[in-house]
Design a protein that fits this description.
heterodimer, B: about 70% helix, globular
């Protein structure tokens, strides 16, 4: 090699090296990159911190939760004492109470919160980003833990409105599924649930030809619509969280189908005031298909056993391509206090997400556990439970679908958009077979974007 | 001879309207009692009368025991939480009614029978607060409870409800009918305002006072959202909050158990109403308030 060509070769090698470095996959976020080392430096020894957790579950669930926390209290080496409290009967009750507590200066350490509620707390600078805690070498999740968690569940709490800050951590989840009356489906001449929307509409309308029967129970609320949009390959909110996109093709197709099926009397509308009306009517054998949360599966099993006594099962909603399902379930958010209290709170949440605890919680409540490794234990527990046994096989299928979960909209102000979807879209197309679906969706998205803008972090 | 059938027809129509109204009023109670005695299956299959002679289902009395057991157990006292809730409801309602009566009587007396400068303007301001929806003041009130350090105490459950604008208004209207001469006579006999109020005005205003007591008893007994917001554990919660256990979660509602629980919750209200109904009607009629 001539000396003259050496610099050119060196430059070439340098460029090649840089290019290769750029092409390498991103390394997992290390503790230093995400502030984990700061968390590692906190020493909780002898601090005896008290942690209060607010939730919205029943007294019997509270008993189980406290039982698990008592085990944590007895076993953690830092003297942390965790206490669970029923903050309200619904997510909204807890949300209202927390807002008052934030203003009163006494929020709990941890509370259940949907992603959009956590975003509202974050707007008030009241909750913290859990990324450094998750990444902490000393207190965070190990590589095995991360691999065991359903990735879609972990991803669901990263908030696009706050540069991907993780404003909550999952300890439970559920999926929107299609409940169907298997016996009735067979009678109609089908040996499997519909997998396409065309087939779904055809079967539902066929079922509705019987007197006082309906093919589909349409729940009058936004999540039902969102589930259909996802299953058709669309989204409610853009991936970067900057605009609503439910007026795209998937949204148009979903709304047009609702309008058509309402006009053809293939569906029955379930108003919000008729609490669990879809479940009762399904159990009574009056409805062929219901889209609802998988967390209600044991109630479906119980209701069908007491009323209709027919064979039923669940399936994903009909799809237009790759499997996408609506992922439900509030996470645990940690409120801003002292670094020690925040860390203690994280350790409580981490404990609740461990295999043993997530298994017990899932087996009691019907939610999905957050770890794949819990599957066998949860299924075994359900099969041993008289109330649950008939639903266990259906429940087992959820594990295959868990990573197909998508979150509706994790941004602040989504509750207003939910109301909009109900009043400006669903109500209108049900009552007006000639309403212009595209125009309605476009107008609703304009309003939704205004809500998004109003609630954007300052 | 000619008029009689017309009067009878008129009365018949009045009775018919009243009977329809009474049936509509009583229907929710009938639904509650019948649902409480049905099985879950009978409710799901919409059977109105699943018992003899139209069906073969026995009356499901066990729903009551199950409803009591299903809302949880108080491990501190070793009893079902139902009894703890019941005790809390009695304490909170008792204190609220007693406190409201005392404050309402004194405020109404001052506004009706004392010569106070600007009392009509004060009364108007007082009444104006009725126009503010309760939901609007809920969160600020909770914030105050947190700031006062009353969270999860009886003070939080009772104190914010001790002033009843409606109670003051009702009693003021009633007290205004008391002749001024009575006070003059009492004054000659050496009685002051306090003596006159409790010895003369209160006894003759019994119907109005009982009306205020009954209405506040019902409001306090049925209060759900407030106790839920300002308490944190089962030891401080009341029956109305206990009932939400049947609706918590995301799966479904055990209607038969919820109705069994609800029918137990309304018993004290019904008893109190039947004891006081004579005075209640009189109180409403004499103050000119249409209930």
């Amino acid at each position: 090699m001539q000396l003259r060509t050496l610099p050119r070769v060196l430059v070439l090698l340098l460029v090649l090296a840089l290019a290769l470095t750029a092409c390498q996959p991103t390394a997992p976020k290390g503790p230093d990159a995400e502030g984990g080392s700061e968390i590692d430096a906190i020493d909780l020894t002898g601090k005896n911190i008290e942690v209060v957790l607010w939730h919205n579950r029943s007294q019997s669930d509270q008993d189980l939760l406290q039982e698990m926390l008592d085990e944590f209290n007895a076993s953690n080496p830092y003297g942390i004492t965790a206490r669970a409290e029923i903050g309200g009967a619904s997510y909204n009750d807890v949300y209202n109470k927390i807002n008052a507590a934030i203003q009163g200066g006494t929020p709990p350490n941890i509370a259940v919160a949907y992603q959009n509620q956590a975003a509202l707390y974050r707007s008030q600078d009241a909750v913290i980003d859990l990324t450094p805690y998750i990444n902490s070498t000393k207190y965070g999740l190990s590589a095995e833990d991360r691999a065991d968690y359903f990735q879609a569940f972990l991803d669901s709490d990263a908030n696009p409105q706050f540069q991907g800050e993780v404003l909550g951590f999952p300890t439970q989840r559920s999926l929107e599924v299609m409940y169907y009356n298997q016996d009735w489906l067979t009678e109609l001449g089908y040996d499997a649930p519909p997998t396409t929307w065309e087939e779904f509409e055809e079967i539902a309308c066929k079922a509705a030809q019987e007197d006082d029967k309906a093919g589909w129970a349409l729940l009058h609320e936004a999540s039902n619509f969102a589930s259909q949009v996802f299953a058709r390959g669309g989204r409610i909110l853009s991936e970067d969280g900057t605009r609503y996109v439910f007026n795209e093709q998937a949204g148009q197709d979903a709304l047009a189908m609702i309008q058509r099926m309402a006009a053809n009397k293939c569906l029955v509308e379930i108003p919000v005031s008729e609490r669990y009306g879809e479940q009762n009517r399904f159990a009574n054998g009056d409805i062929l298909f219901v889209f609802a949360s998988s967390s209600g599966m044991n109630y479906y099993a119980d209701a069908v056993a007491k009323a209709g006594g027919f064979k039923w099962a669940v399936a994903p909603l009909p799809q237009s391509g790759e499997l996408h399902m609506n992922l439900y379930g509030a996470s645990m958010s940690v409120f801003k206090t002292t670094p020690e209290q925040q860390l203690a709170s994280w350790l409580v949440i981490k404990f609740l997400g461990e295999k043993e605890q997530t298994t017990r919680w899932a087996a009691k409540t019907g939610y999905l556990p957050v770890r794949a490794s819990a599957k066998d234990d949860v299924i075994a527990a359900l099969k041993a439970n008289e109330k649950w046994a008939s639903a266990a096989d259906s429940y087992a299928m959820l594990f295959d679908w868990a990573n197909a979960g998508m979150v509706e909209s994790p941004v602040a102000g989504y509750d207003g958009v939910r109301a909009l979807i109900d009043t400006d879209l669903i109500s209108k197309v049900i009552n007006d077979p000639n309403a212009d679906v595209k125009a309605l969706l476009d107008a609703a998205v304009v309003k939704a974007d205004e809500i998004l803008k109003e609630n954007a972090p300052q | 001879m000619i008029k009689t059938p017309r009067i009878r027809l008129g009365r018949l129509l009045i009775y018919l309207v009243l009977i329809i109204g009474a049936l509509i009023s009583v229907l929710p109670f009938v639904y509650m009692i019948t649902s409480a005695l049905k099985s879950y299956g009978a409710i799901l299959t919409n059977q109105f009368w699943p018992w003899w002679p139209f069906g073969d289902e026995p009356l499901q009395w066990q729903n009551y025991a199950q409803a009591i057991n299903d809302i949880g157990f108080d491990h501190t006292w070793g009893i079902p939480l139902f009894y703890r809730y019941l005790l809390n409801s009695l304490i909170v309602t008792g204190l609220t009614v007693a406190g409201t009566l005392l404050i309402s009587i004194m405020a109404a007396y001052a506004l009706a029978l004392m010569d106070l400068p600007g009392k009509n303007a004060i009364f108007m301001l007082f009444l104006a607060t009725l126009m503010i929806p309760g939901d609007l003041t809920l969160v600020p009130k909770v914030v105050m409870v947190f700031r006062l350090g009353w969270y999860n105490t009886y003070a939080a459950l009772v104190v914010p409800w001790l002033v009843s604008v409606f109670g003051v208004f009702l009693l003021r209207q009633f007290f205004m009918q008391v002749p001024k001469d009575l006070y003059d006579a009492a004054q000659i006999d050496g009685a002051g305002h306090i003596r006159f109020m409790f010895s003369i005005v209160v006894p003759i205003s019994r119907p109005a006072i009982i009306t205020v007591a009954l209405l506040n008893f019902i409001w306090s007994w049925d209060n759900f959202r407030w106790p839920l917001l300002v308490t944190r554990d089962a030891n401080m919660r009341v029956l109305a909050v206990g009932m939400q256990q049947f609706m918590a979660g995301e799966g479904g509602t055990q209607v038969h158990l919820m109705m069994a629980f609800a029918s137990m919750v309304v018993v004290p209200v019904l008893i109190f109403y039947f004891i006081t109904q004579r005075y209640f009607t009189e109180g409403i009629a004499r103050t000119g308030i249409k209930g």
